[in-house]
Amino acid sequence: MSVPVLERLGLSPSATGTAALATGEKPYATLHFGTLDVPVGSLLDLVRDTEDLLPPRTGHLGNWEDIALGRSGPMDFNTAVCAGGYGYPLVYGFTRTEADTEGGDDVYLPGSLVDGGRRTTLPLYTWDGRAFVRRDRSRPLFCALTLTELDGELVPLVELHRRRMATVPGYHFRQWADSLNDHAPLVTDMLCLLLEEARGRQNPRAAFAELISHAVRPDGSVGRCEIHQDGGGYVIEGHRYPSARAFAEAAMLTVDALTEPRRFFSRMHDIPPVLPVISIQLSSVLFGLLGTHLPDDPMLPGEDPFLTHLHWGARAMAGCPPRRGGYLARKSTVRSLRAITRPLVRHFDEIRPLCFALLPAQIFMLCPPDTEQRDIDLLADLFRAVCAAPDNTHDTTVGWLVTHQERLSPYLRGRFRESSGIPTDAALRAPATPVEPDGFRSLTFRQACAVVAAFEEVLR
To answer: Which of 256, 276, 280, 367 lies closest to 330 in space, CA to CA?
Structure first.
């Protein structure tokens, strides 16, 4: 990419707030495309026309079969991105099984198998200090430290889902843990530096929390944690690690549990009683610095003077600004990401300032399945109305929905229900392909986000 991505889209440093990155004044910036008047089609064409560039779409470990077949309701935006050639599925495995209590993954349902809208719960096992025992669903379990039963054998839950993902045609899944493992020495060195740097901050506990957000025990129980200094060591949930390197290496054990699960489970007697889990803030920085937007050739020298990382974020990460922004663009999050990136840029010669260019995947919820022609025609009508009143997108959409929402299919309306995930109602749905209605590519990202936000407000 000889010409920087943002420049190819006609975006100036003043428009994107990246001038401070170019001068080295700032080490990090989040650029949310949902706040920009960039036509959706311009970005999609750029991705398709740029060799090596393919933004990740970070989905969770779990059930992707119905997603790949375009019959997963709100999760169809994954289908539009990954099957449409605009991105690839980068699977984030530091998640928890769904449970009877809150805190588990009720969207991808990793503690179950979902096929054709039918859900089968899996038996779940974790370590009790002597053996693997079956657990109930009273609490979420850390996926990486959980096993299930298959054909009379205990197998890692991670392995089961990886096997299933490998059979999905047309999808090239990559695992975030594999990226961390591929650069394990560098990631460990980075974490060591960040831990030592956090000790000298005005509020060390808050600085530690930006790096390590949770602690997990061998029995799969996981929760938020605090890190305490103890001389030159670090104490987490009552367990002391004698040095930053010992602590960082322990954090990488959860990566091993995702990349080499059988080897990990074979040595449970040697696993420390508490393991630190890398935070989503640190992961977000590493998504960019490890080059996941260049999946076939990561860690290239890239652009000068800063790195632009394109990334498809979903409902929590990206949201639909300005009415509902995601967590990555919050001022508090940006401050954390900037604090994490600054010492890495200063210390490591290969690390450049980072622009995290956040692409809102939810805009593809406006692309109906090819099995619903009426929805396709109706959405094209809406987009014509939006383009005719470009400065009043939200109100135009709300007014249009008042008149037309009942004509939309229940399937399309169901995409916008709050907290909805992969359908498990056992309804028989034909495989489908998301269709970009006429006018979709002409919408700007700002307009497309405003349309989705209006749909959420009216249809929920």
So the answer is: 280
Nearest Cα residue to 41 out of 453, 376, 437: 437
356 and 29 Cβ atoms separated by less than 8 Å = yes
d(CA 39, CA 60): 28
Kind plus residue range of the DSSP H or E element containing 319: strand 319-320
Q: Outline where DSSP puts E strands in 220-302.
A: 222-224, 227-230, 233-236, 239-241, 275-278
The identity of residue 39, as a single letter, is: P
C-alpha 204/C-alpha 378 separation (Å) is: 54
User: Residue 105 in contact with residue 98, Cβ under 8 Å?
Assistant: yes
Helices vs. strands in the chain: H and E counts, helices first: 18, 20
Structure tokens at 74: 């709100």
Query: CB-based burial of residue 297 (10 Å sphere; 0-12 exposed, 13-18 middle, 19+ buried)?
Result: exposed
Q: Are 146 and 100 in contact (CB under 8 A)?
A: no
How many Cβ atoms are within 10 Å of 273's Cβ, its own excluded?
12
Distance CA 381, CA 422 (A): 28
Element (H, E) at 56: strand 56-60
Under 8 Å between Cβ of 201 and 195: no
In whole angstroms, what is the distance from residue 13 CA to residue 308 CA?
12
Whole-Å CA distances, 278 to 168, 206, 213: 29, 14, 7
Q: Identify the H or E element spanning 6.
A: helix 5-8
pLDDT tens per residue across span 400-455:
999 999 999 999 999 998 766 888 988 888 999 999 999 999 999 999 999 999 99
Distance CA 451, CA 389 (A): 12
Could you say which residues of the chain have pLDDT below 50? 1
* Nearest CA-CA partner of 257 in 412, 145, 104, 136: 145
pLDDT of residue 428: 83
